[in-house]
Predict the structure.
Amino acid sequence: MKNFVFIYKEAYLLDLLELKANARTLTGKGPARRLRREGRVPAILYGPGAEPVMLSVGVSDVEHALKNSKTSQVLANLVIQNGENTVRSAMIKELQSHPLTGTFLHIDFYEIAADRKIMARVPVVAKGKSKGVELGGLLQIIRRELEVSCFPNQIPEAIEIDITDLDIGESVHVNEIALEGDAEIPTEVNFTVLTVITPKGAADDEEEGAGGEASEEAPEEAAAT
């Protein structure tokens, strides 16, 4: 591969979504169920050097944040109401949902700071039509998201890879993707991000053709002996 295009879009901390949250003291399944019946989601806020804070947030507020986030990684200013309002910047680290109903069950918020890198999930987008696909190959995107280490105001909108020169049997590996600025993809394994493969039917035809040639040659060899 020769050309990789990295689309970079900043999400400034000043532009973070506002998400109202209430401090809570009761824990366990019973209080959590009551919160959900009231249209709220149990949550926790934690981060380096800070004590965890038990919270609850409104379902509609969470839906609004998910819909209007500028990046795939949701960042928000949590306005925590506990007698007086305090604001803590955070990212949604984990959002648990019911597998059948989709109901929000629990949210983990991770506190962020402008001068501290975070791990953000960034979508992978293939750009262009590879010459391998034009020859009948199939594009297979193996990793649709990559974890990027970056500052909160430098989360990329997407990692866009130009696949124009990618031929059948060729792949793009993670170490071939260079990011801008201080952003990086930390990994110990140079895994495949996307590849162009031979269609299954075509591969079977090639194998059958090779087998047919071998069977045709066998009688000639036998006759020669």
